[in-house]
# Entry
Amino acid sequence: MNKTYRDYHPDQLYILPPSPRDWLPENHLAHFISDVVDDLDISVIEKTYEKELRGYPPYHPRMMLKILIYAYTTGVFSSRKIERKIQEDIAFRYLSAGNLPNFRTISDFRKRHLSAFTELFLQVLKIAEEAGLIKLGHIALDGTKVKANASKHKAMSYGRMKKREEELKQEIKELLAEAEKIDQDENKKFGKDKRGDELPSELARRETRLAKIRQAKEAIERRAREEKEAQNKGTKKDDGSDPPDQGESHGSEPPAKEVEPKDSAQYNFTDPDSKIMLDGNKAWVQAYNAQAAVDSAHQLIVAHDVTNNPSDKVNLKPMVKSIEANTGKKPAEISADAGYFSEANVSWLINEAKIAPYIPPDRQKHNERLVSPRGPITEGMSVADRMRRKLRTKRGRAKYALRKVVVEPVFGQIKRVMGFTQFHLRGLAKVKAEWALVCLAYNLRRIFSLKPLRSAIA
# Structure
């Protein structure tokens, strides 16, 4: 007896549904992205095309946005891979409506409209606010190191640059002497009319390397001068860190000395804005410090930023100000890990921003049991001791514990689920814009997962 199977005819012609929308299930993420982008104001993008009167008409920017945002929400970041998805994936094909932009067009669109991604992030955040998804009761702030589009092996320390500069100068001197000797020998052999002004390729390569190293040295020296100037601007810096002990001032300041960078100062030749940082796995990587402030109500990002400073401490005040700028309101309370603590930061939150802080002065050990404090607060207690006492209370422990379940899972979603573990653009300004696109994609993905509330958005 022969077994009966369902019909299978690979070469059979199909009559597809008349509407591309019917190719996907009704509750598919691509439908949600399409509906949201249709409601966004993209005039900031459209204005850039108004003066282009010649040439073939460009692809519709709304279609390109849908493809790009959907790609980021589903973990496809390479423009070449996005092109392949448009050709092979039904959801991408539906969003492109049959258009087939190539990878160069996709890449150029992303680079051309970098400044628009922050504005689009704010529009989606506003939609979420109007739907009641943003409460600003408790905000959890954290940073994560994201690899730069550069290898740490393309970095060189200032000390190594000084040594290599001398080596190259000596090598060039020797090559020039050798070239001069060759010229003299050829003059004797062929006569003085023979050309001898062509540089040996080996000499040209060394001179190019020497020029790059000198340029990098100048960049590191300029950075050291700027940092020194920032330290000398006053007793308190505006980055939230505690000021150094300035001592007493006696008369006018002595003339500024030339600042010598530390030999350990690094410069990356591929992406000079990136820095070598210690990531969450205790590994040294060429990276940026990506920041996110997350609302505890529904784990939506309400503010974002990227810096090339490995310290989180300097980011607290700018991030709190961004929250207010983005939402028009201040959060009631904020939690962050010990990396954000300084007496200046905590005092600013309490006295000026009027926000209750839950930021430990010390890194807490895993499963550490804290004993509840007893007795009243004494007048001479420091800001750090007051915060330690506050975080030992039952309420304090509960508030600080929110950080682990609010902001840390967001970075987990971005890195593990969406697959965003490395920036694809170079330079701090471009990286900031790409992080805005990532946060926009994360928020849309998160809103889509809140099924009972999704209808209030799209």
Remarks:
- The chain has a mean pLDDT of 82.
